[in-house]
């Protein structure tokens, strides 16, 4: 029986990752099109790089350095129809969440220079909280950007960003 434990652990891990990548509570043709894609941030933090925002793990996080209007941009690699974007706050730092994920604009664009607003979240996230932004019908894009647009200089920290979309 002990020889089966690594196999069972791997199977459980794969099942969890599949659940994150597949549609849960969404139409069956939608998938997390941001999973393991390239992420650029406005400033780099040495231990919490942008790739941690799309790795399927909710117990780590990506963060920028402290600055005015910090942002995180995901390159989806191709154009997708974008339905919804979910941004998850850190849950490991109760006093950080509201300071590091607040007043955000979520934009989508076919190029980095042609981003259009999907939605704005004007409050502060609670620890482990989920911010759901639904894009207007027919939104198409290759890039998704999350940016703090109000307040004092701060870090932008996210545990995960899920982009629900489908191939164009």
What features would you describe in this structure?
It is a single chain. The model is unreliable at 10-23 (pLDDT under 50). The protein has helices at 5-21, 97-100; strands at 31-32, 38-41, 62-63, 71-88, 102-109, 115-124, 130-134, 140-148, 157-158, 160-167. The strands form two sheets. Strands 1, 2, 4, 5, 6, 7, 8 and 10 form an eight-stranded antiparallel β-sheet that branches. Strands 3-9 form a two-stranded antiparallel ribbon. It has a single domain (2-167), classed as Galactose-binding domain-like (Jelly Rolls), CATH 2.60.120. It is mainly β and 168 residues long. It contains two helices and ten strands.
Mean pLDDT: 87
The biggest beta sheet is recorded as: 8 strands, antiparallel
Structural class: mainly beta
Strand residue percentage: 35-45%
Number of helices: 2
Beta strands, count: 10
List the SSEs and their pairings:
Elements: H1 5-21, E1 31-32, E2 38-41, E3 62-63, E4 71-88, H2 97-100, E5 102-109, E6 115-124, E7 130-134, E8 140-148, E9 157-158, E10 160-167
Antiparallel strand pairs: 1-10, 2-4, 3-9, 4-7, 4-8, 4-10, 5-6, 5-8
Task: Please give a quick description of this structure.
The protein is mainly β and 168 residues long. The chain contains two helices and ten strands; from the N terminus they run H-E-E-E-E-H-E-E-E-E-E-E.
Features:
168 residues, mainly beta, two-stranded antiparallel sheet, Jelly Rolls, globular
